[in-house]
Amino acid sequence: MGVSERVEEVSIYAHRGMSGTFPENTMTAFQAALDAGVEGIELDVQMSKDGHLVIIHDEQINRTTNGKGYVKDLTLDELLGLDAGGWFSSNFIGEGLPSLQLVLEWLLEEGNDLTLNIELKNDIIAYEGMERKVLDLIDRYQLQDRVIISSFNAPSLKKVKAINPNISVGYLIAGVKQDAIKVARDIGADAIHCQPSFALSTYGRDAIEKGFPLRVYTVNERAVKEQLVETGVEVIMTDVPEQLK
Ligand code: G3P
Ligand code: CA
């Protein structure tokens, strides 16, 4: 199979939305990704003090909002009142943090056929009950076939599969994790989400051969993308989909 044919097979997911050009994990970044023609978006979920699912990468709000402190210590209302755009550029002042519910509703709008990769950010703070809350929300909107759940937290992914064996799960790893296939099997994962270093290693090739598609983050250079396409990865996650499409 030639490279050009392979290029058409790989799917592009916008990492934290179109986060190279817009404030990460905001509705503006997600809409821009849809407009750019990607196949999916990746986003990060943390949980508020009152048990709501909020889209933000860090455990603390300090880096990407105008507030300070931990997501887990603030209520949904407090989190939704923060500015999540001004840190990136004054053009985006007024941009808020989205809830997961808002993103799922947006996914159901006409013309939106994106796949949504929901990363559970529960490897640093173990949010009690997060898995069931996420799956219940997905159920409520009947979006089971359009979502992928990923996490660095293997026991959490096992819980996800125990609650709903049909939901697609990606085991998320950093670097060249030599026991990735073993852990992915133990979880019952459908894929491995990894960095280029793993995908381009013998471990990565072995994973593909053993039936684990690779979804690779975060790829912002065309040359790396082309190497990955040649290797046969399924998904490339990028901050700059407009440059890689
Ligand atoms: O899901 C892939 C990637 O987003 C994991 O790393 O730190 O960007 O959430 P991070
Ligand atoms: Ca992420």
TrEMBL record:
UniProt superkingdom: Bacteria
Protein name: Glycerophosphodiester phosphodiesterase
GO biological process: lipid metabolic process
Organism field: Cytobacillus kochii
PANTHER family attached to this UniProt entry: GLYCEROPHOSPHODIESTER PHOSPHODIESTERASE, CYTOPLASMIC (PTHR46211:SF1), GLYCEROPHOSPHORYL DIESTER PHOSPHODIESTERASE (PTHR46211)
Molecular-function annotations in GO: phosphoric diester hydrolase activity
Gene3D superfamilies per the UniProt record, alphabetical: Phosphatidylinositol (PI) phosphodiesterase
InterPro entries hit by this protein: GP_PDE_dom, PLC-like_Pdiesterase_TIM-brl
